[in-house]
Amino acid sequence: MMGNFFSYILQGTAITVGxxxxxxxxxxxxxxxxxxxxxxxxxxxxxAAAGYSLLMRGVPPIVLLFILYFILxxxxxxxxxxxxxxxxxxxxxxxxxxxxxxxALLAVGGGQMTAARAIGMSRLQSIRHIILPQALRxxxxxxxxxxxxxxxxxxxxYALGVPEILRRAQQLSATTQQPFLAYGTAALIYFxxxxxxxxxxxxxxxxxxxxxxx
Amino acid sequence: xxxxxVFISLLVAVSLVLAGCGGGSKAANHLAAIKQAGTIKVxxxxxxxxxxxxxxxxxxxxxxxxxxxxxxxxxxxxLEWVDMPFDSxxxxxQEGKIDASISAFNYSEERDQTIDFSDAYYTSEDxxxxxxxxxxxxxxxxxxxxxxxxxxxxxxxxxxxxxxxVADGALPEENLFRYxxxxxxxxxxxxxxxxxxxxxxxxxQALAKQLGGxxxxxxxxxxxxxxxxxxxxxDAELQQAINAIxxxxxxxxxxxxxxxxxxxx
Lengths: 214, 265
Prior knowledge:
Chain A is 82% helix and 0% strand. By secondary structure, chain A is mainly alpha-helical. Chain A has a single domain (2-207), classed as MetI-like fold (Orthogonal Bundle). By secondary structure, chain B is of the alpha/beta class. In chain B, strands 1, 4, 5, 6, 7, 8, 9, 10 and 11 form a nine-stranded mixed sheet that branches. Chain B has a two-stranded antiparallel sheet with strand order 2-3. The longest helix of chain B is centred in the first third of the chain and has 20 residues, at 2-21. The interface between A and B is large, with 38 and 41 residues.
């Protein structure tokens, strides 16, 4: 009976990891695009990107989740609770990732762009071959923060009925009246996941470090 | 903040317009669509024993669970459970994400405005629970106003406390503690953070027995009363079909047997 208890909560891990693996890359792609637009584009697009970031960071993730699932989904495209939840979290995360990446792009410095243009590279080429390789390396440490936040925020999808770790812990806490055990198990799983993610990113950051950026 | 509000209203407006344009091929009515699909999607919040909960292996168990299983069988469709927090269930029915919901829902006029109810399948009472050693006196329900009171958010008990005791000033708002779930509130009650917990009588009995050190000092119908299955607004066919089955099950004594199985002390 105790074995079932733990394995029931553990089964939620696949969903938690799944939500994170959709939300993070989706947020990264959108965030990088926005960061590039915000840093290198003219006034209008620049403003639009800034507005997007302000808006998305201003809306509580749960509100976006409800809008996407209960109001929009089914009218535009029919999203399952899993996808509606993951994409909402990805959208929220994209605003934060945009700011992280924007910081990294700015940290590379304007001189590099000028130099790249001077040897005949186009703007796009300069960004791709000179700016991005440096900026993405610089972004890893702050980005690992965002990765652990998204991993833990993935518990929000329970509001749409996706049975991830936390929802399973809640159910078992209600059934067995052992909240400490149930939530303790959930906390332990989250800790292991976040720990592993952070170590992996630390390793990546160490491996890709440039001699010029100690 | 203002941006957020503008943005949300914009999204809502856009989605309403799109909803208006929508349409397309559909079965004659919701019941026909369910039969055509061969599956009824029913929402529940499986954290409310003995009505609905999961056992240690994750199977759904409880009074509502067994009742709905029988109803689906008699509708001749497969039953698909969708587990959601209690707060999300009515929105899910309203937006057509699930076909119906069974989760010990009490009838209330506010709820009736956006969704419909089946006939009652059981009548529940409210209870006031205190920790053993509680020295205050609760003779009439209004007496709880003198204490720190706990309640589950969004329940009929929540409305009763808010509309009667808080509205006329007897119970200060800061002495009303709203919890996500009844079992969490009962633990706080046991630990002395609140003095009285107002909830449905049946789960209160189950929790008092399970947790120990708790005592029910009053029970009677204040806010709760009949409990019903929640179905979409103006869905006459599904309502009639479910009502007919509930009537059958009552006549056959099926529901009484379930009550003895799950609620007997």
